[in-house]
Amino acid sequence: MKKIFFAMPLLALALTACDPSQIEGGSEWASISADQVQATATPVQVDGKNSNRIHVTNTSPVVSAWDADQLIENTTHTVTTDGEIYVTKLGQNVIRCLTTNVGGTPTTKELTVQVDTITYITPAISERLGIGKAGGAKYFGKGFDKNKIEVKHLLLEGSPSNTLEIVKNDNPCLCTFHWNDGKLEKNLGQISTFSIGEYELFVDWIDAAGNHGENISLGKFKIEAMEVPEGVTLLTGYTPENPNATKTWELVPANNWGNGGNNDKKPSWWTTSVVDQGGSLGTITFDFANSTLTKVVFDETNKAGDKSGSGKFSLDFTTADESKSILFTLKTTEPGNIVYPVMINQGDYHPTVYDVTVVSENELVLRAQHTNDATWEGCFWVFQAVK
After folding, report:
1. Is the bond leading into 335 cis (omega within 30 degrees of zero)?
2. How far apart are CA 254 and CA 281, in angstroms?
3. How far, in Å, CA of 257 to CA of 76, rounded?
């Protein structure tokens, strides 16, 4: 079986291409058009069906790469002249052959393939489906039946708590659950909300053919007892006894922004102040009861253009991973992002997903992962509690 190629630098292939003077046909390839590209995309057969593994070839004397749009993931980009790529959607898929001829002129040829079965499942989809776990899906395919979902209401000291657990869901599709302000983007797992009351549980789904459903009710669940993760109280000040509490954090005066390894708890490579980068100091205030983050920028004339504002935020405790120094994840929305939400070494990119790597009564460290995993780099912000 041929290997599935995920990515390699296009430049690397370009540097190993033939000398144009040695290519049969010579200069005629300097102005090659898409219809002249000798490219094929053929699904690998599995039990007589077209699988989602695609054998691609390009025999034209040009540098070639392949783009394939995915169902829920980003478009994949693969550089090869003879190899395998994949798609994650049943039905017709468009494979784009991207070429650069000896004259340096790019062109794109689109090829359509029919996919009848998903035999290669990406790690991200496998994890969401719960493949290999008790109660999880066995494959990725078509169809949804809400009766296949079993929900358990967890108890706290004998009373229904603020946590539900999806203990069985073998639907071969991707499910997202919503319970008040709680969200679970996996077919199995726990979902919590932090308000006393009765709330309806809903599920959204999408299958491998792109069929989908939204806001399907799974019933109402009443909360009579609540357990709050320590991280909620440390970050936001919220407790069941004081549900309207808020907590304000400010960037420390110096060394408040920097970088380090993408698994570090704190910036370890280089630090500075956001003021030295054209930004301004400021505060962020968490109102957990209303899921609102309010940012106050002290100097709104700052060159970075950072402004005060408010927006919704959410916390995800399912991401906790000691090996990656992740306590939980903070997700923000503009304009209620953090102070100076600018990624170091990544231009003016503003992340909205942050790893909480340190949180105590007085100290908070946030980390955003670089979108290019090959850098092994994280960007850090260091805050202190406002007394």
Report:
1. yes
2. 10
3. 32
245 φ, ψ (degrees, to nearest 5): -70, 150
Close Cβ partners of 114 (under 8 Å, ≥ 6 residues apart): 43, 50, 91, 92, 93
Task: Return the amino acid letter for 36.
Answer: Q
In this structure, the number of other CB atoms found within 10 A of the CB of residue 372 comes to 10
Residue 328: Cβ within 10 Å count:
20
Alpha-carbon distances, residue 98 vs 16, 59, 64, 101 (angstroms): 17, 13, 6, 10
Cα dist. 78→8, 10, 63 in Å? 7, 9, 12
**What is the gyration radius of the CA atoms in the chain, in angstroms?**
25
Residue type, 143: G
Q: What is the pTM of this model?
A: 0.60
pLDDT in tens, 307-328: 999 999 988 887 899 999 999 9
Which residue is listed with tokens 């209620």?
336
Look up tokens 């784009």; give the residue: 96
